Amino acid sequence: MAFDIEMIKAVYANVVERVDEARKITGKPLTLAEKILYAHLWEGKPTKAFERGKDYVDFAPDRIACQDATAQMALLQFMQAGKSQVAVPTTVHCDHLIQAKVGATQDLQSALNTSNEVFNFLESVSNKYGIGFWKPGAGIIHQVVLENYAFPGGMMIGTDSHTVNAGGLGMVAIGVGGADAVDVMAGMAWELKFPKLIGVKLTGKLNGWTAPKDVILKVADILTVKGGTGAIVEYFGEGAESMSCTGKGTICNMGAEIGATTSTFGYDVSMERYLRATDRSDVADAANGVKEYLTGDAEVYANPEQYFDQVIEINLSELSPLLNGPFTPDLSTKVGTAMTEKATKNDWPLKVEWGLIGSCTNSSYEDLSRAASIAQQAIDKGLKTKAEFGINPGSEKVRYTADRDGILGVFEQLDAKIFTNACGPCIGQWARYSDPSNAPKNSIIHSFNRNFAKRADGNPNTHAFVASPEMVAAITIAGRLDFNPMTDYLINENGEKVKLDEPTGWELPPKGFEVKDDGYLAPEKDGSGVTIKVATDSERLQLLEPFTPLGTDITGAKLLIKAFGKCTTDHISMAGPWLRYRGHLDNISNNCLIGAVNAYNMKTNFVKSQLTGEYDAVPKTQRAYKAAGIKTIVVGDHNYGEGSSREHAAMEPRHLGVAAVLVKSFARIHETNLKKQGMLGLTFANEADYDLIQEDDTFNFLDLNQFAPGKPLTIEVVHADGTKDSIIANHTYNQGQIEWYKEGSALNLIKKENAA
Fold first, then answer.
1. Burial class (CB in 10 A: 0-12, 13-18, 19+), 598
2. Rounded CA gap, 164 and 142, in Å?
3. What b-and-e string marks burial along 181-217, b requiring 16 or more CB atoms within 10 Å of the CB?
4. Is the separation of the CB atoms in 252 and 265 below 8 Å?
5. Potential cystine with 267: which of 294, 397, 504, 719 (Cβ 3.0-4.6 Å)?
6. Residue among 397, 371, 404, 396 at smallest CA distance from 511
7. Based on the number of CB atoms within 10 Å of its own CB, is 533 exposed (0-12), middle (13-18) or buried (19 or more)?
8. What is the CA radius of gyration of the chain?
9. What distance in Å separates the CA atoms of residue 73 and residue 181, rounded to the nearest whole number?
10. Model confidence over 80-136: pLDDT tens digits?
11. Given the residues 95, 107, 268, 637, the one annotated as active site
12. Which residues pair with 91 in a beta bridge?
């Protein structure tokens, strides 16, 4: 039986009336995304039509999921909200703090030894506040959610950008910062600008070496890393219906890499099969009762140009396997000669040193079985892998079942390392080098979602390429980036030319899923007696102090850094070894913006202090400004804050005394995170004004006392020679968000309202 089945039935009990009313109000057929949004309004039954990309709307999500790295700060904030229980079903999943190094058993024990303080904290907080807890080793959050919690037509939020994975089971699932999650945990509405809609019509059927991963690699190529910003991507058509549920999850998962709010598919028979295979026939039965409300209306899919803001069509029968990268997930290349040409032109290493399969994107039973079919061919045809091989199963259920069915044994025959059911290399938790910063130039291939510089192994010289699990397996065996398994031959141990056949696999395990201990701990019904202890001298955990409001008189602010080019959340708050400090705001703030490139010297973590005239590390320079009582601003380029949902990228600058972030454009989650922490997240009205900012500038906010929705702010920029420029800064704050700013943070406002 499913978790929270009564909650799911309650959602379905309301969906018919609410969707029918939304059709009347809007006067048109509805997409699936619109049905889910209108069915989850905070006010209940719809009373007005919302304008896409403009109206801020309050929603009532059905559930929340948190991973251990982000859960620490989220729960530290929730502890300040004055509530005894979470208001909606919530889970915590321990998957980020496990480093891949030797293999599953030893790596898991090492994580327990080094992070036990954090795991105990998360378990105790979960137990106290009615939160489901998934132990270290239980699996990667998004695979576990797909197996246990996702349901067609539902809405969930999660403190990880790849929460969107649950769209594979027909949800609107959205990655948010922890402060957003705290709002919903505390029983408040969750606010989102009503998204625009991008429709992707899939025709034909995947065949041969082409996989669901290639669909999203192609979409990323078309839309780029910011093309989905502010939009929900909805997939439909015969091609969508022909894919497995976990294949749909893969596509939705990597939608985070195009900046999409989320992605989703309509309920169909593949979702029903998956629900029944994962012991949720009760959910499938309930969904079947309202199934026409769990997909887009037929008129929408017949004439998509009339109902979506943008429509893309992809013929799956003509789609080729792709490799995306390096250093960005939207740079797409067809396998084979196209890669030879591009790699040679750009001096990318063609030799592949590692192939990695797993992550929340591609770690299902189906993914492992298809990759194992290639590995088995290598064994049968006398081939050995030319690159090293690593496997991360998605969950203990997947791992146990794959082990039972001999799949993991096939990989082990090729000397693959089976890592823990955890994120591992995908998020930088990979002990590949003792000194990553001085590691050599090389190429790796993986089935993950992100491939920013330093992302997997901390080495800025690692060229990471994203591909399907079966293509990763083939290229790992060949050891060359430009290997094309559809046309190229390999030489086996006997000197014979052999060719790999097309991959095969199982959508679901033929003998069903099986697991001995799935790693779940249910909370106590009454957690009032549970004590949460945080040592005052802990390096890992620190109780929070409320932020002081920045006020409306910001003058004499100094420039901390003008970031050049791509500045992701990895640049603002690195992962990897810094994950150990995710629950200690002051300690983790020592990584604040250390990966951002200073536009004035093109170096990282090396900025000029206007107090001393000397250059030093960003956090050290900023701490000196804070000690002197001087506010600062950060200036950035396009899509600032792209990538992970980590709110630390907003909390760290806020904690250190940064008042405003002024950029050409924001990634959605990061902009919201800045607002939640009571900061100013602003954009240049004229992008060319970015070039006016000089290294020794001082900033005066002239009309912040008139801060209002839709009203730009005027900033006087005073240069070192005494000359001045006036810059107009746009913002997207509504009145409620301005109240967050006035109170110092959204959490401060929640506490104030709960105390009233």
1. buried
2. 8
3. bbbbbbebbbbbbbbbbbbbbbebebeebbbbbbbbb
4. yes
5. 294
6. 404
7. exposed
8. 25
9. 11
10. 888 899 999 999 999 999 999 999 999 999 999 999 999 999 999 999 999 999 999
11. 95
12. 65, 132
Amino acid at 447: S
Residue 644: active-site member: yes
* DSSP single-letter state for residue 614: -
Sign of CA dihedral 78, 79, 81, 87: positive
Tell me which H or E stretch contains 675. Answer: helix 668-676
**Catalytic residue check, 20:** no
Give the residue among 151, 153, 6, 1 at the shortest CA–CA distance from 65.
Answer: 151
Determine the average pLDDT of the residues in 483-505.
97
> Under DSSP, is residue 311 helix (H, G, I), strand (E, B) or coil?
strand
Q: Is 450 a catalytic residue?
A: yes
Predicted TM-score of the model (pTM): 0.89
What tokens appear for 37 in the block?
């949004």
Q: Which of 270, 332, 589, 644 is catalytic?
A: 644
Looking at per-residue pLDDT, the higher value among 229 and 11 belongs to 11
Q: Residue 185's pLDDT band (boundaries 50, 70, 90)?
A: very high
The reported pLDDT for the residue numbered 80 is 86
Options 18, 40, 93, 96, the catalytic residue: 96
Assign 411 to helix, strand or coil.
helix
Q: Which of 62, 107, 160, 637 is catalytic?
A: 160
- DSSP characters for 193-262? EPPEEEEEEEES---TT--HHHHHHHHHHHH-TTTTBTEEEEEESHHHHTS-HHHHHHHHHGGGGGTBSE
Residues 182/750, Cβ–Cβ less than 8 Å: yes
Tokens in use for 110?
Answer: 């090492």
d(CA 501, CA 479): 17
C-alpha span between 590 and 596 (Å, rounded): 14
Count of Cβ atoms closer than 10 Å to residue 139 Cβ: 33
| CB-CB contact of 687 with 626 (8 Å) | no
Burial of 435 (0-12, 13-18, 19+ CB in 10 A): exposed
Q: How far apart are CA 324 and CA 361, in angstroms?
A: 14
Polymer length of the chain: 756
**201 in Cβ contact with 308 (< 8 Å):** no
Is 160 one of the catalytic residues? yes
Inform me whether the pLDDT recorded for 646 exceeds 90.
Answer: no
- Catalytic position from the list 646, 654, 668, 670: 646
Phi, psi at 210, each rounded to 5°:
-85, 140
> Which run of H or of E encompasses 462?
strand 462-466
